[in-house]
Write a structure and sequence with these properties.
With about 160 residues, the protein is an all-alpha fold. It is about 65% helix and about 0% strand. It has helices spanning about 5-20, 25-35, 40-55, 60-70, 75-90, 90-105, 110-120, 135-150. It is elongated. The model is unreliable at about 155-165 (pLDDT under 50).
């Protein structure tokens, strides 16, 4: 990395590469920014996200992103990074939780809205009088999903929304 660049310049270059879908190229810039200013939560969080995405080191990514959120708990972008780490490792419920926190802080956050939209929307339970996690709802829900897939229907074609589920 270029030694003439400031931590903020490294961060901006890393963010550009991450936004372009190149977390491997972003990692070195975020690493440099974090090395130059270890106490900056934004740099720490982005570095943690890339460690998770590129090096697949969940615990280290979680440690970096989590400490950044604790330090700057009012920054929706830090919650977004924490959500992305969880989602990258298959922890959808935790990822959703942190996306919702980001949107509680900034309801207009386009990146958090896009992530939430890409995750899809939940449909209503088949048997509304039973809890969503009840065995009958789970079995009937799977059958409904298979039937809809065989018929070529998706949740969006059926007009269901996340608020209904």
């Amino acid at each position: 990395m270029d030694a003439r660049w400031s931590a903020e310049e490294h961060f901006q270059r890393g963010q550009e590469r991450l936004d372009a879908g190149r977390p491997d190229a972003a990692l070195e810039h975020f690493r440099a920014a974090h090395t130059l200013q270890r106490d900056n939560p934004r740099y720490r969080s982005s570095y943690g996200l890339c460690i998770g995405l590129v090096e697949r080191r969940f615990n280290k990514a979680l440690e970096l992103c989590g400490s950044a959120v604790k330090e700057e708990f009012f920054n929706p972008d830090l919650y977004l990074n924490l959500a992305r780490v969880h989602l990258a490792f298959g922890f959808k419920a935790e990822g959703l939780r942190y996306l919702r926190r980001a949107l509680m802080i900034d309801p207009a956050n386009a990146a958090a809205q896009r992530e939430l939209r890409e995750l899809g929307e939940r449909r209503r339970p088949v048997l509304k009088f039973l809890p969503r996690r009840h065995v009958l709802n789970r079995l009937l829900g799977r059958a409904r999903r298979r039937f809809d897939a065989a018929q070529g229907f998706g949740a969006d074609r059926l007009g269901r929304t996340a608020q209904e589920g």
